[in-house]
Amino acid sequence: MWVEARAQQPSADASLVFEDLGTQRFAIPDCIPKSGDEASREACRTLTQVLKSDLQFENLFKFVPDNLLAAIPPLNPDNPNMIDFGGINASILVVTRAQATGSDLSVEMKVIFVKSGRVMLAKRYSGKADNPRVFAHQASDDIMTLTQYRGVARTKIAFTSDRDAQANRRTKEIYIMDYDGFNPRRVTVNRSLNLLPAWSPDGRSLAYVSYRQGGPEVFLAHIYEGRSQSLTSGKDGQAFAPAFSPDGKRIAYASSRGGNMEIWVANADGTGARRLTSSPGLDTAPFWSPTGNEIAFTSDRSGTPQIYAMDSEGLNVRRVTTVGNWNDAPAWSPSKQWSEIAYTSRLDGGFEIAVKNLESGEVRQITQGQGSCEYPTWAPSGRHLAFACRRGGKWQVAVADRLGQRVQLLPAGAGNNVYPDWGP
Amino acid sequence: MVRRRLWGLIVLGIMVSLSFHACGGKKRPPAVAQGGSSSSYGRDASSQAPLPLDSGPDVQPIGNDNTTGSEFEASDPLTGEGGPLEDIHFPYDQAVLTEEARGILEKHALWLQNHREAKVVVEGHCDERGTAEYNLALGDKRARAARDYLLSLGVAADRLTGVSYGKEKPLDPASNEEAWLKNRRAHFTVSR
Lengths: 424, 192
Known about the structure:
The structure holds 2 protein chains of 2 kinds.
Chain A: E1 4-7, H1 14-17, E2 25-27, E3 32-33, H2 38-58, E4 62-63, H3 66-71, H4 82-87, E5 92-101, E6 104-113, E7 118-128, H5 133-144, E8 156-161, E9 173-178, E10 185-186, E11 194-199, E12 205-210, E13 217-222, E14 227-230, E15 239-244, E16 250-255, E17 262-267, E18 274-275, E19 283-288, E20 294-299, E21 306-311, E22 318-319, E23 327-332, E24 340-347, E25 350-357, E26 363-365, E27 373-378, E28 384-391, E29 394-401, E30 407-409, E31 417-422
Parallel strand pairs in A: 2-4, 2-5, 3-5
Antiparallel strand pairs in A: 1-7, 5-6, 6-7, 8-9, 8-31, 9-10, 11-12, 12-13, 13-14, 15-16, 16-17, 17-18, 19-20, 20-21, 21-22, 23-24, 24-25, 25-26, 27-28, 28-29, 29-30
Chain B: H1 2-25, E1 88-89, H2 99-114, E2 119-125, H3 132-152, E3 160-166, H4 177-183, E4 185-191
Parallel strand pairs in B: 2-3
Antiparallel strand pairs in B: 1-4, 2-4
C-alpha cells in the first residue's frame, strides 16, 4: 500500500538454504544511511530495530548478539567482508541502507549467504517517510518468503477499546493496529457500543457488533472506503459474534431472533440467513474451520459452557472440550500443519487461554495465573496467538507463540483493549 | 416513593376485586387445551399464573385519574441509568427469576399499567466473568426472562424491547463479589 518493492536478481535456489531454519544465524548490522542527514539516520535506527524485532518474533532463527557485531570492523555495504561475518559465526547477513528525501524514503535490503557470499534476496522499497516501521515490516516479510511460512510483520490486529469513551458514557469503538501494537487507528466513530470485530479474509473489511440502532446487530465496515453496511438489523432479534467463512462468502453469528440463542449463517451481505442449531441451551461464538466445512461454537447444552463442532450445515454436532467446567470462545487454527482450537478456559477461578490439539486430544495451557486472559485469535500462519489479558486492573492485548512459551503484552495504548482479531 | 407504593396498593386492590367479580359472575369457557398448553398461560383461572393487567376480557382499563398519571422521571437518555423501575438481580451464570425478582416485576407491571405512555427497554446485564459472547447470550436470556414475565402479567408486547449488554456496561466496574452481584441484573430503561 505504501511501499513498492522491486526484486533485483533473486536467487533461484535460495529456499534450499533455509530448509533447516533452526541452524541459521542472522547478523543484522545497523542500517547505513546513504546521506548524513538526521532524517535518514532516524529512519535507519527505526528500520534496524523493527526488522530485528520482527524476525525475532517469527521465532524461527538465531541471531548474532549485538556485542559481537560491535566487535568486528564496520560493515562496508557495497562490499561486505564475509570473513568478518563468518568469524562471528553468522550464516546470513542482512544489509540495509536508507535515504530520506523530503517526505519520501527509499530503503535497500540485501540478504547474503555468508558462506558463499551469494545474494539470496535484494529489494528496494520506496514510499512515504512518515512511517519507517512499515518498510521494516515489508523487509521482514520478504525474508520470510525464503521459508515455508508466511511472515507476520504486515498483519494487523483489530480490537475493541474504550480509549475514546466520553465521560459518563460506556462507549467502545473498533480499532486496528499493526501486529506489534504500533500504529493504532480508529475504525468506528459512532459513539455507541461497538464490539467483537472479525476480519474478512481479504483484509478489506471488518464485521462487528454495534448498538448504534439500540440492540446488538452485526455490521460490516469497509475500512479503506470509510463506509459501513448493516448485515442483520431490522430482522427482529439481536445478533452478535460474527465470523467469516475462510472463502469470505458466508458469515456465521449468534442470534436470538427465533426465541433462543442459536448459531445462524448468512451470505456475506447478510441475505439468506438461516438457523444452524436448535438446542434449548445457549449457542454462541461460532468460528469456522480452515476448510470452511465445519463450525466450532460454544454451547451450555450440557450444563456448563463447552466447545462443540458441527459441519457447516449444522449437522453432526460433537463435543470438543471435555476437561474443565467452562470452555468458551473457540478459535480454530488456520494452519494446515496443526489441527487445533484455542479457547478460553476457567481454571482455579481465573480464565486462561488453552489450546486443544484435535488429532492427539492433548490440551496445553498458553497463559497461567497472571490475571484473567480471554478471547484467543490466531495469526494467519497459525504460529502465533493474540488474546486479551487483565493486568493491573486494565485489559490489554497480548501475543504468544503457538506453544505458549513466550507471552508478551502489546503497547496498544490507552484504555481497555479487548476482543482482538488477528487479520491477514 | 411512598406515594407511589400507596397508589400501587390501591390499584392492586381494585384489580383484585374486579377480577373476583369477573370470575364469580361469568361462566368461563374451559381452558383452550386440556393438556395444559402454554397458550392459556395467564388467562385460565385454574392456573396459578397472575392475572392479566393490561388487556383481556376480565378487567376494565383503569384511567389515569387515580394515579400520578404521566408524572414520572424517565431514565437518563444518554446512559439509560436511573428511572422509576428498580433493577432485578440474578444468581451467577443463571437467567432464572428469583422470588424476589418476580415480586419486583409484579410491581413494575402495575406501574406500567398506570403509566401507559411509558415504554421500556429491558436490558440484560452480566458480571465480568466469562467471555463477551457467552455473556451477550446470557444477558439476552436474562432480558428475555424479565420481559416474558412482564408479558405474562399483561404488559403489551410493543411497550417492551429486550436488549442484551452482556458484560459491556457494568453498573459497578470493580472486580469483586459486591460489584458482580450488582452487575448481574436486568435494568429497565424507561422513556415516554
